[in-house]
Amino acid sequence: MGLVRFRREDGNAGQGGGPGGGMLTARLGEFATRIGSVSPWTNVYGVARTLLALGTLSTLAATGTDSLFLPAQGVPDYPKCDGASAIGIYCLVPGSSAGLELGRVISLAVLALVAIGWRPRLTALPHWWIAFSFQANVTAPDGGDQITAVIALLLLPLALTDRRRWHWQAPQAIAEADGRTTGMALIAWSASLVIRVQVAGLYLQSSVAKLSHTEWADGTSLFYWLRDAYFGAPGWIAPLTDAVTRTSLGVAALTWGPLVIEFAVMLGLFAKRSVRPYLLVAGLVLHAFIGLLMGLGSFALAMFGCLVLLLRPLDETFHFPDRLAGLWHDLRNGGRLTRAERTADDTDDEADRHPVAVARGISDPAKG
Questions:
Q1: I need a labelling partner for 135 at 20 to 30 A (CA). Which of 15, 22, 47, 129 fits?
Q2: ∠ at Cα 155 (168, 112), nearest 5°?
Q3: Is 81 within 8 Å of 69 (Cβ atoms)?
Q4: Which of the 8 DSSP states describes residue 365?
Q5: Can you say whether the dihedral through the CA atoms of 356, 171, 278, 320 is positive or negative?
């Protein structure tokens, strides 16, 4: 590798510093420069932040504090304020019903700001704090709440280095001479990689661990889950799910299908860019059905955000925010923009919506 010279002039082994070592260092520096020249601050991670925030916000908006904070077996005191949980917002406000309601209102306000994408740099830490507080202080958080708290923490390097006013805005170009911005971009890209590994590990564990249970291994688990008193299918679709799960093929497909999709989503960590959109759609459909059939809406939103971070490259921006903004602009201006004008605007913004994947050497990200 050129890291060690075999002999010095005195006949003793010498350490690195030869031409090979310099070449390796130069190549690593060139690689880092290419990565750092591509902006990670796009609406891709912005969409993920919005989805994560909406998951927690929906639960807080639809559930009163009298249902979130209750005594339970092993949790006689509420909110839970032992250990690290003591820094949660619900432990810092007065312990009365009015105090808990105040914490809920503050949480809703913070999450609303995150969801609309305002000032990622300013809302990043409050978002993590609210997400952590919810999963740490409420009596019975679900897996989606815990996942949201972890991902909000891992998103801090991305959000804290984002200078944009809205996380929907086009990414700002990084000048070659701007070493400070390049360094921050490298930190953000590194955080993105850590998140992708974390989410992939989550799906790997979820798909493999279930097989240790007999009902998942023999393909009958969904027969029982869809009839569960709390997580079973709602009444309007229960007749259909009951009929499907009474057949051996139907219950096996509903049980093993999610395992196959989860394992495939994990492989998205290594998949080509051209494959990832299909895995993303499969994952979104899976969690949409879980949310619909089992009533786990906030969990579905949290996993939607995770899927975006795992399977949508940050430099392949979404088009729909621009289209929605264009529709809103048209409505505000009474529809005065002609189709030709909108097409011209779209053409002008093409470079912003499709940043070149310099780090991957891809001229067209969609073809990568």
A1: 47
A2: 50
A3: no
A4: G
A5: negative
Secondary element (H or E) of residue 267: helix 248-267
Average pLDDT over the chain, rounded to whole? 85
Among residues 182, 142, 365, which one has the least CA distance to residue 273? 365
Rounded average pLDDT over 80-92: 93
Q: Determine contact, residues 168/46, Cβ cutoff 8 Å.
A: yes
Neighbours of 289 (CB within 10 A): 14
Residues 6+ apart with CB under 8 A from 25: none
Element (H, E) at 45: helix 43-62
pLDDT at 182: 87
What the block records as the tokens of 171 is 């990414």
Chain segment 64-83, per-residue pLDDT in tens: 998 898 887 776 678 888 89
Helices (H), 117-211: 120-137, 143-154, 156-160, 179-209
CA within 13 Å, CB half, 109: 6
Q: How far is CA 152 from CA 31, 301, 307, 355, in A?
A: 28, 14, 14, 25
Q: Supply 215's token pair.
A: 């009902």
Structure tokens at 354: 């499709």
pLDDT band for position 171 (cuts 50, 70, 90): confident
CA–CA separation, 60 and 5 (whole Å): 63
355 falls in which pLDDT band (50, 70, 90)? very low
Q: Rounded to a whole number, what is the distance in angstroms from the first to the last CA of the chain?
A: 30
Q: How confident is the model at residue 44 (pLDDT cuts 50, 70, 90)?
A: very high
Rounded to an integer, what distance in angstroms lies between the CA atom of residue 289 and that of residue 304? 12
Two tokens at 172?
């700002």
Residue 112: strand, helix, or coil: helix
- The per-residue pLDDT for 231 is 83
From 71-85, 214-228, 262-276, the region with the lowest mean pLDDT? 71-85
